[in-house]
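Chain A, query sequence.
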Amino acid sequence: MLFAGIAQALSAGKRVCVATPRTDVVLELAPRFQKVFPGIKITALYGGSEGRHEYAQLTITTTHQLLRFYKTFDVMIVDEVDAFPYSIDETLQYAVQQSRKLESSMIYLTATPKKQWQKECRLEKRDYVTIPARYHRHPLPVPQFLWSGNWEKKLTKGRLSTPIKKWVESRLASGKQALIFAPKISAMDKILTILQQLHPLIESVHAEDPERKEKVMKFRNKEFPILLTTTILERGVTVPNIDVAVIGSEDRIFTESALVQIAGRAGRSAEYPTGDVTFFHYGKTEAMLSARSQIVMMNQEGIKKGLIDA
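Chain A, predicted structure.
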């Protein structure tokens, strides 16, 4: 989506910055950009990264690192603009503005714009472009809802709800990798103990995990069949051929935007454009229904605009 515009800017000698709230996304994007622009000096900046003082025509960075720059960039692209902490931190929003040149392009990217922005777009108070389809022209995977009963109560007895267990066993049997989201670390730890009895290489990761980067890399390299995670991996991580499940999707941590982002982990590559997305629940929520409705609506718009080969 970004390559053509960035290529045009780079060929005109402009300095380009792609900023994102999360380190995981920087680590994901940097090698992809380097592969596409092999002749361009690219710097990836995040807490603890090297190369902070190097000049680069293309900079991939966390929004925190932008506090180091002043009127530097000709093109500023902020990815995942609705993500925490950028969405609520005025210091980071200021950092974005003060790091770009007075005359520069400002581009915001989001799959889940906040309601105020949606309203401004409808009223034509904000310039915008809607892209209702992926580059590979396949529809977005639509989540299915599966009732899993009182899964938390079962966990306290060291058992996993039967529908969840069957779903996991099916992925292990077929060799299909899966990303499973849990609402809390405490629940995730209990689920991990049970799942490791099915396969010892199943792993988990969360924001405070010191091996977070390594585990995500190992999952990407197919060293883990299944990775359990919190919402930390709801966005920015691309693994070509995975199914996705949410355990306890009725929990309020799973907002509409979080569920849309989670569903978006499946079917991302042209080689594997489909994937199963299942929301296990103990009662449907408005967020679940709205998330599915939004995905269905985008698919309908993509077909209508001729962007999906239906």
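Residues 286-304 form the longest helix (19 residues). The chain has two domains: 3-122, 144-304.
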